Backbone:
């Protein structure tokens, strides 16, 4: 089943999960909390490849407890994080206290950032759960400065009732936005996940002309 944007309708959406209730244990997952030094190092290395090499304004949508925001901040970037869960946002604010970072409660598909523009929109494991991924991508593009980029970490999870967005479908959704798209597979990068995985995981980096 597909929606009007041509994206597979997921078996669940972010509204099906009580993220406030899961906030306290969210960082227990290796790729969420990045508490394992090896996992943390792997994500930091990847972010250096995906983000600009100079200080930039990063919009981290669906930021959760702010683990990727913290890595971006440590690399010299200015971060604005948005998450729909007040508890997640509270934890992110604590995690990045004293840093050049702002965290807002809001909808990742329509982030409450007003007229502000960013160099990067960073989104990990969020797009698949939105009811209209195509519309969200079009809106996010409008939040970018010229030569800005979308960094979208996505995948397909599960075997019985798989959820997610395959890389080829996301590439098709990005095509009408123009610019260059680079897709890198992440399934073989066990360091990122703290374990071996056998499902589809990838990043799409789309540079807007």
Residues:
């Amino acid at each position: 089943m597909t929606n009007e944007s041509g994206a597979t309708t997921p078996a669940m959406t972010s509204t099906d999960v009580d993220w406030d209730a899961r906030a306290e244990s969210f960082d227990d997952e290796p790729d969420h909390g990045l508490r394992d030094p090896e996992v943390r190092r792997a994500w930091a290395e990847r972010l250096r490849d995906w983000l600009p090499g100079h200080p930039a304004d990063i919009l981290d949508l669906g930021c959760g407890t702010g683990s990727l925001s913290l890595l971006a901040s440590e690399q010299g970037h200015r971060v604005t994080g948005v998450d729909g869960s007040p508890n997640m946002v509270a934890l992110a604010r604590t995690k990045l206290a004293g840093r050049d970072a702002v965290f807002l409660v809001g909808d990742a598909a329509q982030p409450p950032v007003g007229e502000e523009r960013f160099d990067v929109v960073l989104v990990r494991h969020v797009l698949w759960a939105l009811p209209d991924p195509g519309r969200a991508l079009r809106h996010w593009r409008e939040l970018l400065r010229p030569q800005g980029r979308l960094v979208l970490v996505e995948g397909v999870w599960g075997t019985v009732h798989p959820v997610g967005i395959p890389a080829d479908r996301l590439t098709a959704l990005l095509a009408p936005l123009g610019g260059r798209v680079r897709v890198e597979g992440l399934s073989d990068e066990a360091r990122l996940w703290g374990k071996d995985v056998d499902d589809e995981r990838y990043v799409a980096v789309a540079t807007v002309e």
Summary: The beta strands are 57-61, 78-83, 101-105, 118-124, 144-157, 163-164, 180-185, 200-207. The longest strand covers residues 144-157. The CA atoms of residues 110 and 139 lie 7 Å apart. The mean pLDDT is 90.
